[in-house]
Design brief:
Layout: H1 11-17, E1 22-24, E2 41-49, E3 55-58, E4 64-67, E5 72-74, E6 78-80, E7 88-93, E8 96-100, E9 106-107, E10 112-114, H2 117-126, E11 160-161, E12 171-173, E13 180-184, E14 191-196, E15 201-204, E16 213-215, E17 223-229, E18 235-242, H3 263-276, H4 282-292, H5 297-307
Parallel strand pairs: 12-18
Antiparallel strand pairs: 1-10, 2-5, 2-7, 3-4, 3-6, 6-9, 7-8, 11-13, 13-16, 14-15, 14-17, 17-18
């Protein structure tokens, strides 16, 4: 067995290394990132128990590589417990966390990945201010202090939007967008609601106690305002307006007809919209990332960093 302890790759360097428009989603060689950069990531190890223990990933050529926290699993690779002393592994995959125990392994299926060189170049440029691909943070509970190391409990205050969604103008949403709302403070339980122009509730979610975000359906009637109500009936909300896809801002490398875009290209567009589309498009961009998270690892990674209010992922002023 060949053991190679692989440091987490530098995002920008990894992105720039992949320039093809269509690549087989084959696995990396030992010591490298995924061949298709972050578009080729299938999963990431976010926790290993006992701390400091290792696991093994097997490449398609049967070479075995020692892996630990923050290491990536590329398409075509298999993660196993053998040889490292781990008794529990948690991975980030398809936009969520999954726990593995010694009787399990994780196989990332190979395939073909398509993306434009312009989308790749945009993400490479956007990544210049970031360092290594650290595990996506867990989304805080409503009363957690966000955006700072060593999160601690905060005094329950008036419910507020999460910092990156505060004080926004009327939000533009396409008819098929599933809005993602996120809040902080307040008192549980929390309930997400859609309100019509007449003040009627056209949709409400089941009450949440420990979560700080919700995803609303696309069709919530003629809603003009989206709300989160806390256990003391205090509110935080966003005014919304439904618009067509032709009105959504896009960079020049996204075609006017976006119906044939690959998930990778749509992810790059969503991130461009979050960073550069302007305040009226924040909920649309977040909805796009959330929709793509089960298909593109990087979409979930970006979404969770936004919801955790990581400073490096804030939109342009």
């Amino acid at each position: 067995m060949t053991h190679a302890s692989r440091p987490a790759p530098r995002i920008a360097r990894a992105l720039l290394a992949a320039a093809a428009v269509a690549l087989p989603m084959a696995a990396a060689q030992a010591g490298e990132g995924c061949p298709a950069s972050v578009f080729g990531v299938a999963a990431q190890i976010v926790r290993v128990e006992p701390p400091g223990k290792r696991a093994v990933k097997t490449l398609p050529d049967r070479q075995e590589v020692s892996v630990g926290v923050d290491d990536l699993i590329c398409a075509g690779e298999t993660l196993e417990f053998r040889g490292g002393g781990a008794t529990r592994i948690e991975i980030y995959v398809s936009g969520g966390r999954r726990e593995l125990v010694p009787s399990q392994s994780f196989r990332a299926e190979p395939g073909v990945l398509r993306f434009s060189s312009q989308a790749l170049a945009f993400l490479a440029n956007a990544a210049q201010g970031l360092s290594s691909i650290k595990s996506p943070p867990e989304i805080p509970r409503p009363t957690a202090v966000r955006g700072a190391a060593g999160a601690a409990s905060a005094v329950a205050l008036q419910i507020r939007a999460m910092r990156l969604l505060e004080d926004l103008p009327r939000q533009r949403l396409t008819p098929d967008a599933h809005p993602v709302l996120s809040w902080r403070d307040g008192v549980a339980p929390y309930e997400c609601q859609a309100i019509s122009e007449q003040g009627d509730t056209t949709w409400r979610a089941d009450s949440a106690v420990s979560t700080s975000w919700c995803v609303m359906p696309a069709q919530v009637g003629p809603a003009v305002r989206l709300l989160v109500r806390d256990g003391k009936s205090r509110l935080v909300g966003w005014n919304v307006l439904r618009v067509s896809w032709t009105e959504v801002p896009r960079p020049d490398w996204i075609a006017a007809d976006a119906s044939a875009l690959s998930p990778a290209d749509r992810t790059a567009w969503a991130w461009w919209l979050w960073k550069s589309g302007g305040p009226p498009w924040r909920l649309q961009a977040l909805a796009m990332l959330d929709e793509l998270a089960p298909q593109e690892w990087v979409a979930g990674y970006l979404r969770d960093n936004v919801l955790a209010e990581a400073s490096a992922f804030a939109p342009a002023p």
